[in-house]
Amino acid sequence: MTNVTIDVNLRGALEAILMVVDEPVAPADLAAAIGEPEDQVLATLHTLRDEYADASAPRGFELRDVDGRWRMYSSRLYADVVGAFVVDGQSARLSQAALETLAVVAYRQPVTRGQVSQIRGVNVDSVMKTLSARGLITEVGEIGGAVQYGTSTEFLERMGVASLDELPPLAPYLPELSDVDGEAR
């Protein structure tokens, strides 16, 4: 086998796997599944991502790295079309309370339910359960017997960002956690 044949097989194998995964996959997991070295898999992923992003031949999909894990997504160029198709007639939007709660978790994580309640000034138990059920937040630890929450990979995917660093600056408008009593009732 020549390197070109291996490269074509590797590319095809990666594309086939990435078309069927429903969550981003780590390069190490892809390498193990395909039986190729991780560095070669990662280099091929970067090449594919760049080829798919070629503006001279826009595609309906793109390959994204989300927190070090890879997955195919519909292209941001066609977000309006895809959104209209997927949402057509559905109202699965988050409420204002859920959006506010999600923003607090995203910008102040890790954060306890009590801290979120104090920042928002209302009880957030129900909203936190909804966000958790939708896979947007997850338990990330514990402090003094209280569960700490953070955003999930699903949140990053839905926001279309690779990391929390890409979120717009909003944190200056939220109180510091040190100013919030974590023992909210």
Describe what this molecule looks like in 3D.
By secondary structure, the protein is an alpha+beta fold. It has 2 domains: 3-85, Arc Repressor Mutant, subunit A, CATH 1.10.10.10; 96-179, Winged helix-like DNA-binding domain superfamily/Winged helix DNA-binding domain (Arc Repressor Mutant, subunit A), CATH 1.10.10. The protein is 47% helix and 15% strand. It has 8 helices and 5 strands, in the order αααββααβααββα. It has helices at 3-20, 27-34, 38-52, 79-87, 96-108, 113-120, 125-133, 153-159; strands at residues 61-66, 69-74, 111-112, 137-143, 146-151. The chain has a 3-stranded antiparallel beta sheet with strand order 3-5-4. Strand 1 (61-66) and strand 2 (69-74) form a beta hairpin. The longest helix is centred in the N-terminal third of the chain and has 18 residues, at 3-20. The termini are far apart.
